[in-house]
Amino acid sequence: MTPLSIPSPDPVFQSFAIGPLTIHLYALFILAGIIVAMLMVNQRLTKRGGESGVVIDIVLFAVPLGIVGARFYHVFTHMGDYFYPGANILNIFAIWDGGNALYGSLIGGAIGAWIGCRFAGIRLWSFADALAPAMLAAQAIGRLGNYVNHELFGLPTTLPWGLEIESTNPAFPAGLAEGTLFHPLFLYEIIWNVAGIVLLLALERKFALRWGKLFALYLIWYGLGRSWLEAIRIDPTTDTFLGIPANVWASFVAIALGIVLFVVQSRRHPGLEPSVYTPGRGPREVRPKKGAAPATDTAAEGSDEAAEADTDASPHGERWTEEELSSSKP
């Protein structure tokens, strides 16, 4: 161990056996992040009138598709790691060995969330706003798995918090002396994500951001941080375009999408959504019976939430009509 440095964990901690099963700590950190995110989203949705546990109806679709998207995005941006003479094609599915891309999880998870929200009757943008800080929490926890796996490190550094990486690591740059320290990108991202949680919650409290606007800020915040981290990351097998790593391009896309989403939704929806439920839907215990007239979006959110719903007006001051709300995207 070098003085004033961050040692990498002993590889023995990367996995352990329970009978015939091998449990990988990396996978446990991902699972812990998912559970924490679920609890956060559930608390945030129920506070705004959603039924407790409705998040489960959504994550049953979002999480599996998010994991699939994360893995395959990683594989297709690291083709050299999986497609070469003599390669074991089954390694494509070895998620426990590390290699899951956040941007892939966003793509797959977004598809799953859209399906789950339609099934549960939740507005997609309401779910996305509830998810924004929870995603950062899940990502911060998941990065601990990168630390255990001795991955996600940056250029060499002499800073006192440099990360120790063994010279036998496949990503260790050739020609560098053993004992060289590297920027601990996993730690930088944890700090960035935690700071993002504080920032998003503060902005949400001050400006009552709804209709996907908080999620838009998440995309901008994460894209900004990730673009810098990827620029100094040592990852010799990642694919590039015009000499720029794929994840840097993906970060630029995330920032652009966040800006467009925030501007568009700010113009279309200057106020709050009247309910986290889509028109005609609501908590199971208050859903209209078959043949009954559709219930209006009046899920109980407390008197203060009801007052806030009154601010959901057009730029000219009129209330949004049910037809306008129905025609608007969730």
Automatic annotation (TrEMBL):
Xref: PROSITE patterns: LGT (PS01311)
Residues the record lists as binding a 1,2-diacyl-sn-glycero-3-phospho-(1'-sn-glycerol): 143
Pathway connected to this protein: Protein modification; lipoprotein biosynthesis (diacylglyceryl transfer)
Documented EC number(s): 2.5.1.145
Gene Ontology annotations for the cellular component aspect, listed alphabetically: plasma membrane
Membrane topology category: Multi-pass membrane protein
Membrane listed as a keyword: yes
Region entry Disordered, spans: 274-330
Record-linked Pfam families: LGT
Keywords noted in UniProt: Cell membrane, Membrane, Transferase, Transmembrane, Transmembrane helix
Transmembrane annotation, as ranges: 23-42, 54-73, 93-117, 124-142, 185-203, 215-234, 246-264
Compositional bias ranges of the Acidic residues kind: 302-311
Enzyme kind, highest EC tier: transferase
Keyword Zinc-finger assigned: no
Compositional bias per record (Basic and acidic residues), positions renumbered to this chain: 313-322
Sections of the chain in a coiled coil: none
GO BP term (any one): lipoprotein biosynthetic process
Major location (coarse): membrane
Alphabetized InterPro entries for the sequence: Lgt
HAMAP family registered for this protein in UniProt: Lgt
Role this protein plays: Catalyzes the transfer of the diacylglyceryl group from phosphatidylglycerol to the sulfhydryl group of the N-terminal cysteine of a prolipoprotein, the first step in the formation of mature lipoproteins.
Name of the protein this chain belongs to: Phosphatidylglycerol--prolipoprotein diacylglyceryl transferase
